[in-house]
Specification:
Strand content: under 5%
Helix content: 40-55%
Low-confidence stretches: none
Distance between the termini: 37 Å
Order of helices and strands: HHHEEHHH
Shape: globular
Length: about 200
């Protein structure tokens, strides 16, 4: 699959996971330090709308990336945001555009394939974040996980991983529970981006 189709598969998996959350789940802790599942999902939706704006040439302003409260039905609001970015990325000439992504670098624009690759790796990881919060497993197609690994390994390390608001934490050792095939590849993706593949909600979470 090309990067647009890979991204679509990752986003739709995130929608499936978020849709499984019940009314009592939104205050669950997530693997993102200090964030509940609700806060994670609101962030995910905000990023969808920001990338959708960027695909239309409107991503330079901070307002495009603003996080919104999702009120009483976060899953429905999240699906709306996911649909918006999927529609934006489905445009016939989307891969010919340049994306403004001020949260990454306000001083430049990015080729569409690079920008959509950023979004893709985010939603592989964020799908897992949401699933882990709920005690579930992700169900990515094998080619999605395989495509995610080289992108994860290219994400820069250093100070960008430790500052406030860092998207990814410093890489972790990839050891832990035995796995094979796509499950092992996903473990490598998560570890490379600072997630513990064996994370589970704290007792009572």
């Amino acid at each position: 699959m090309d990067v647009v189709q890979l991204d679509r598969a990752a986003v739709l998996e995130s929608v499936r996971v978020v849709r499984s959350a019940g009314p009592g789940d939104w205050d669950r802790p997530s693997p993102c330090s200090g964030w509940t599942l609700r806060r994670l999902v609101e962030h995910m939706g905000a990023q969808h709308l920001g990338f959708a704006a960027a695909a239309r040439g409107q991503g330079a302003g901070a307002a495009a990336w603003r996080t919104r409260s999702y009120g009483g039905d976060p899953a429905a609001r999240y699906r709306e945001a996911a649909d918006a970015v999927l529609d934006a990325f489905a445009g016939p000439d989307v891969l010919e555009r340049r994306f403004a992504l001020p949260e990454i670098d306000a001083g430049t624009t990015f080729a569409a394939s690079t920008a959509i690759g950023f979004h893709f790796i985010d939603y592989v990881v964020h799908s897992w974040d949401a699933a882990a919060s709920l005690g579930l497993r992700t169900a990515f197609p094998a080619d999605v996980v395989e495509a995610a690994l080289p992108i994860a390994l290219r994400v820069p390390g250093g100070e960008a991983r430790v500052g406030p608001g860092a998207a990814f934490r410093p890489a972790l050792p990839a050891g832990g529970a035995a796995a094979s095939g796509s499950a092992e590849t996903l473990r490598l993706v998560l570890s490379a981006l600072g997630r513990s593949p064996d994370w589970s909600p704290p007792h009572g979470g």
